[in-house]
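Q: What structure does this chain adopt?
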Amino acid sequence: MQLLSTSEDGRIEALAPAKINLALHVTGRRDDGYHLIDTLAVFTEFGDRVTVAPGDADSLAVTGPFSRDLEAEPGNLVERARDLLRGLSGGHDCGPVAITLEKNLPVASGIGGGSSDAAASLRALNSLWSLGCNAGQLAGIGRTLGADVPMCVHVRPLRARGTGEEITFVDGFPPLVMVLANPGIGVPTPAVFKALKEKDNLPLPDFSGAANTQGLIAWLRNTRNDLEAPARSLAPVVGDVLAELRQHRPLAARMSGSGATCFALFDNPETARQAETGLRTAHPDWFVAATTTLPSPGDNDARH
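A:
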């Protein structure tokens, strides 16, 4: 699957994939209030899409099933990414641009939707304006937009520490088949961190990669998501989602990020599709999607 594509009429489309925290430990808190984390994250083929094209004036149109959830949001991260990149362009001709955001991921749901949208916008505009930035440079630019944006720029299996800025890539990561499920609610990240009782936990155990899914599952058994308990205290329905996912006998099930989206890993696409169908039938008001993880690139620059 291409992360970036150009149409014959010059429009550039970028995938903004869901970011899944397979494990997330909170390891401390800085004096300025920022929490320190240690997380292993992957990205899925399912996500939002950002399309950019030259325009008569800057504009942003939001479409897709979750577009209404962004209508009242001032200063969308996509617009902030556009303005930031233009301001740092160093005299390049960065003319007006028409942006369309196809919002397929639920908002404020723990899978990096807004951050991934911003990262996709940086990649697409970098190409449209012929700025020549590599992924590392775009990640540095994106850091001012949010702690998750650099991860979403790279779009590859990675381990992130600190406030998310200390990134280590994980090569040779096995492809994962999963189902995402969200009960239709957003859980405010600040409230989840505030409800977290223990803020000084041990980091993730060493991880140098896994040859197959079973090896990864064995590693995951010694990890957790430290934000799951506080999220469930604020939104008990998260526990219901996990219980429903586990009814389909996955290899593992866990909440991603600060919630409320949960994921379940399966051993093949057919069982994942069956679980997707069962969940949609039982809960037609939930967001449910069967997907697979994106493959690792050959090198760092392949993500822009």
